[in-house]
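To whoever is on call:

I kicked off a structure prediction for a single chain this morning and the downstream step that reads the tokens threw a length-mismatch warning. I double-checked the sequence; it's 136 residues and nothing unusual in it as far as I can see. Pasting both halves so you can look.
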Amino acid sequence: MRSGLWRQSGFSLMEILVAFSILSISLGALLSVFGQGLRIAATSKHYSEAAIIAESRFAEVGSVQPLESMHDQGSSGNYQWEVIIAPYTWPETDVDPALENNANALEVFSVEVKVAWTQGVRNPFISIQSLKLKAQ
């Protein structure tokens, strides 16, 4: 009779160790997923900010900056930008014979804007390139 009164209910030491092992492995995996999510969010933030800088520099060409051959560079916070403007030369196959005389009268410039930043050991960048027609 006495053995029935003193019978203990609960978990053994082995069951507790197994539960803590499972808990620690699952927490480690969750922390890894959250850490990777934070890194991806930071990378996305950098690309978004770089795209805004590139688009604003590109919009300035022809309005604030004159549309002429030039190479300009600078920085905005942690981002380094570069603007390259060069005359566009028409490939021989692109010139329509009907427009051949007028093609030389048009002043078309190739505009390229690059924005780079440092992220760890990598140096990612974005680039926008297009043609702009100079107003006569």
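Update from on-call: the warning came from a stale cache, not from the record. Cleared it. Sanity check on the structure: The mean pLDDT is 85.
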